Amino acid sequence: EALGASSPSSAAVPWLPARAGNASLELASRPPAPTAINPWDVMLCVSGTAIACENAIVVAIICYSPTLRTPMFVLIGSLATADLLAGIGLILNFVFQYVIRSETVSLLTVGFLVASFTASVSSLLAITVDRYLSLYNALTYYSERTVLCIHTMLVCTWGVSLCLGLLPVLGWNCLHDHAACSVVKPLTKSNVTLLSASFFLIFIIMLHLYIEICKIVCRHAHQIALQQHFLTASHYVATKKGVSTLAIILGTFGASWLPFAIYCVVGDPNYPSVYTYATLLPATYNSMINPIIYAYRNQEIQRSMWVLFCGCFQSKVSFRSRSPSDV
């Protein structure tokens, strides 16, 4: 069946449209039947595989490297774990969509994906808060109070994510009330609105914190330059680089998730499901980009990768230890 064709017998899918048509994402329990594989589902599965592989490496490095036990690496590990689970969820969604068609399994899958992606976005917020604190309270950052703060953020991040992921399983779904369905069946309109509102709130908080971080970085760079009695070219270069990096981080996050979050609010379940695919696929790319931005650019993780995979790390290779705000 061609992509975009309408079909009343579309297959069941969690989070994602089972087959392209004028129906939105739908979950249902149906007898097994040969189903043409949707190319969009293949792309989501490939995306999930890449996400899982990338983040599995990060998790392995952090777990097996005793030196990576500082608060900032704990938060990066939390982000990598959330993205790893999200990648696994996308793979399982593909398998259960075309192999095992069960209403119960589908609800579990959609709950798993909601919890994983929520934990990923929340971990990004926690990293942003950590960056801000490392600059705003630089003198007291390395203290027991910071460790307690990090652990509190992690508990809140995963606790809230688990609760949101359990909502569809515990009955907040539209399987028995199709009029309440959103563009992401079996999630209801109110459920999707809650998730989107939470994302908008997190995005606004991150935007505010990154603006404050930019102000602090610029102020510190200016003070250092004044202590040297003149503004050097390196001062402007460092400031510009720092602001550009923060803009890339926030821009990537917003470009990935904003289209999907907005469409979940304004979209109608009767719209072609290709619209949901077109906004959801870029959202998954954020979990693919996260390890590059937050992990692989860090030189301590690069050093640990040499040790873990090559076993040929030489002490003469120089690595500069970065502060939390550099990660």
From TrEMBL:
Which Pfam family is one of this chain's hits? 7tm_1
Q: Which InterPro entries match?
A: GPCR_Rhodpsn (IPR000276), GPCR_Rhodpsn_7TM (IPR017452), GPR6 (IPR001151), GPR_3/6/12_orphan (IPR000723)
Q: Tell me which GO cellular component terms the UniProt record holds.
A: plasma membrane
Transmembrane ranges? 40-65, 72-100, 106-127, 148-172, 192-211, 243-262, 274-296
Predominant cellular place of this UniProt entry's protein:
membrane
**Which family does this protein fall into?**
Belongs to the G-protein coupled receptor 1 family.
- What name does the UniProt record give this protein? G protein-coupled receptor 6
